[in-house]
Design goal:
The structure holds two protein chains of two kinds. In chain A, about 85% of the residues lie in helices and about 0% in strands. By secondary structure, chain A is mostly helical. Classes of the chains: A mainly alpha, B mainly alpha. The interface between A and B is large, with 50 and 38 residues.
């Protein structure tokens, strides 16, 4: 009897902890998305060039790899995640300026499409409560192959390969959204700052890939 | 070849180097998924593909 009560208490505590991580992740994700959007707007108005955007992206990724893991378990992780997402948003400036000049509806469609895909996949993971932990290896291999393909295409400059890579990015990032959400639900991810970084990156990559695909198929 | 291409290539190579050990760990330690598990991934993925085709037709 006592043992059952103990198991139930632990289970209730675990559910509460999970919903707290999920709530904090979505709250921080919303704030970082707004901040990143404002920084992207700043990037457009300041008309930053592709070279500056590349430098800004490299700084953001370096912070993501080397600073965030060391600060994610403390309050210092919050300004770091805002700095990373802000820099990544700023780095979007040139690509957004380009598509706004070509056809502004592409940017709005890509933005709405990314939001809808994220909401749909999150709702799927939350309602079905499926465990997607089996996808970890597959997603990492997929990402490795996609980066290798992007590297190859810098030299080959093949439009078809570019489209295939962007389509693959959308699929892999969809998988990462399911994987991270499921990981939060099942207690694998207990740090909301790391969970936010993971979902933010998936959404950002998906948005850029969708922009390129819509841009390629646009009539303009 | 301009410095932008070289910098981008170096950035992507750094990414590959950074990801490789994590990929190896993930492949080694990920649980195996059953056919049912994979179907649970393929169904939303097909929905995403359908949605993107719809978006392409809109622009």
């Amino acid at each position: 009897m006592y043992q059952n009560q103990s198991v139930m208490t632990r289970s209730a505590e675990s559910v509460l902890a999970t919903s707290k991580v999920l709530r904090n992740t979505y709250a921080l994700l919303s704030m970082t998305l707004i901040f990143s959007g404002l920084m992207a707007f700043a990037g457009i108005t300041m008309q930053i060039g592709h070279g500056t955007a590349l430098i800004v992206d490299i700084v953001a990724i370096a912070m993501l790899w080397f600073v965030l893991p060391r600060t994610a378990n403390s309050a210092a992780g919050i300004p770091v995640i805002f700095a990373i997402t802000g820099l990544l948003g700023l780095g979007l400036g040139p690509i957004l300026s380009y598509y706004i000049a070509v056809n502004p509806s592409i940017v709005m469609t890509a933005l709405g499409g990314t939001g809808a895909i994220f909401l749909g996949l999150s709702a799927y993971a939350l309602t079905t409560r499926k465990d997607f932990s089996f996808m970890g290896g597959f997603l990492m291999v997929g990402m490795f192959v996609v980066i290798g393909g992007a590297l190859l295409n810098i030299f080959l400059a093949m439009p078809l390969l570019f489209l295939v890579i962007n389509a693959a990015v959308i699929m892999i990032m969809s998988g990462f959204i399911l994987y991270t959400t499921s990981s939060i639900i099942h207690g694998g991810e207990t740090n909301y700052i790391m969970a936010t970084a993971s979902i933010f990156l998936a959404m950002l990559n998906m948005f850029q890939a969708l922009l390129h695909i819509l841009g390629a198929f646009s009539r303009d | 070849m301009d410095w932008m291409k070289i910098s981008s290539a170096l950035f992507l190579i750094a990414m590959l180097v950074f990801i490789f050990p994590r990929m190896r760990e993930a492949v080694k330690h990920s649980p195996k998924g059953s056919a049912k598990d994979w179907m649970g991934f393929i169904i939303p993925l097909v929905a995403v593909i359908g949605f993107i085709i719809l978006l392409i037709q809109m622009v």
